[in-house]
Amino acid sequence: MASASDMHTDAPSGADIKLVISASALGTVFEWYDFFIYGTLAASGIIGRAFFPAGNATVQTLLAWAGFAVGFGFRPLGAVLFGYLGDRLGRKYTFLVTITLMGIATAGVGLTPTTATIGFAAPAIVLLLRVAQGLALGGEYGGAAVYVAEHSPKKRAGFYTSFIQAGVVGGFLLSLAVILLVKAVMSAEMWAAWGWRIPFVFSIVLLAISLWMRLKLSESPVFQKMRAAGEREANPIKASFTYPGNVKRMVVALFGIAAGLTVIWYTAMFTVLSFLQTTMRVEETLAQVITGVGVAAGVGWFLLFGHLSDKVGRKKPIMVGYVLTLIFLFPIFWLMGSAANPGLARAAETQPVVVSGADCEYSPFAKVQPFACGKILDHLSRKGVPYTTQKASVLDVTIGGRSVIDAGEAALAGVPNERIDAALARAGYDLTPVVPSAGNIALILVAIVAMSLLSGITYGPVAALLSEMFPPAIRYSSLSIPYHLGTGYFGGFLPFISQYIVARTGDPYAGLWYTWCVVVLALLVAAFGLKDDRDGAAVA
Q1: 3-state class of 92 per DSSP?
Q2: What stretches of 74-220 show up as alpha helix (H) in DSSP?
């Protein structure tokens, strides 16, 4: 079997490489558009209202994000299935299949009746379609990354494959752009009733364009040579786990690369969008526009650091990105929060909400909280108000140090929500949608571009790095399996886990600890598991 370093081809013609990069990158944009359109609409609450109505906004949001996570959970299975096909049948035809499956599944979500129409069959159908999307995506990224990498000459693979990484960002941006465009041409009532389905059905148009472009492509030159020499692996999945040193490579790829870069990327995209829309109460459309502009301004980071990795090696940018993330993650979000809603941020700082009681436990999934303290926390969580809890023998709620319930109410464990709401309003907790000033919007954009920088440093070089780590005969499988385990589970469950942490703690920034801890793990694994080889990264 050829070694991991046997990847690069002779320099293709300018026209050929442009077609390879554009067809692969655009296909990646469209495929990730299909996958992200669900997450983009989940952040605004539409998916929850349509398919997961629960009578509780917090639970509804968590269920919608759980549906988002389901797709990611099946990505590793798609990686196994399509990785096998990619190593046996070829790179080109395999990712033609994946993009077709993705386009059909995405349109299906847009055509599924709501729960109000067909009952529990609606969420069941949506979850099955999310499974299909996850399977398709499990095969898409590995195919596109390997295909472009195997067309790249030495010293250009990082730059050429960085367009694939930028294509992932492009899918997120396209999902925002289509949503904003559709919302702009119809009333709010039409959008809420049926207009949100158009971005899903639009996937059919993108599928047709992508198939037209990808059918023009020829098979990867590395795969053609391997097939001509009879070097294809009979069972690439089995060989991925038996080839000398390959399991170690896959472990490093999973925990040191995929897990770390993914939580940074999803924090820079979905956490930012959800944070602005829900936590900081920025007007929905404006939050989407700000996020889209900020992310678009940061796309160049992916290309820059992909190109830089051709000169300094793949490991250095990734390690620097991890360290910078650990240092600046919380400060970036603190800046964003204070700029997005200064009044709410000031109220949380100067008028903190403290709930005291003997049984201050809150379960976001409980239909009814068993204790009075939990009922208060449930009310605050639904409104998105940050709080802290204290153990005490007597139930109490203080805002800025002043109690808002009297002794009689505490003794009876009766806490009127109206009084709490009135006290919150007096303390400056304005929970209506806000439009930040122009100066504050500029600060938010600076914060988003900074998050995109952290993502670009770690994500830009990755397609080349992963392709260079594995032998050609098992490259598609060996790359896809750890990548999609890392991105599927560490990244796909990030919105759900971080939102759950916020709901349980009452701290709008507490969910960032999930990202921070995963990045610590990735930093340690990459530091000891990767060696820096400018001619192709490998496991030490």
Answers
A1: helix
A2: 75-89, 91-111, 115-118, 121-149, 157-184, 188-193, 198-201, 203-214
Three-state secondary structure string covering 277-318: HHHCCECHHHHHHHHHHHHHHCHHHHHHHHHHHHHHCCHHHH
Give me the residue label for tokens 């032998």. Answer: 471
Long-range contacts of 359-367 (CB under 8 A, 24+ apart): 360/389, 360/390, 360/391, 362/503, 362/504, 364/58, 364/59, 364/62, 364/500, 364/503, 364/504, 365/59, 365/62, 367/56
User: HSE (CB half, 13 Å, CA atoms) of 254?
Assistant: 15
- Provide the edge-to-edge strand list for the sheet that holds 402-403: 388-391, 353-357, 396-399, 402-403
262: nearest Cα among 529, 528, 72, 131: 72
CB 52 within 8 A of CB 67: yes
- 254 pLDDT band, cuts 50/70/90, is very high
- Joined tokens for residue 326: 């650990």
Cα–Cα distance measured from residue 92 to residue 324, given in angstroms and rounded to the nearest whole number: 37
Q: What are phi and psi of 56, to 5 degrees?
A: -145, 115
CB 176 within 8 A of CB 85: no
Q: Is the pLDDT of residue 362 over 50?
A: yes
Phi, psi of 530 (to 5 degrees): -105, 140
Q: What is the mean pLDDT of residues 304-310?
A: 92
Partnered with residue 304 across adjacent β-strands are none
pLDDT at 367 over 90: no
What is the amino acid identity at position 387?
Y
Among 180-189, 382-391, 530-539, name the most confident range.
Answer: 180-189
Burial class (CB in 10 A: 0-12, 13-18, 19+), 375: middle
pLDDT in tens, 17-34: 788 888 778 877 877 787
Whole-angstrom distance, CA of residue 321 vs CA of residue 329: 11
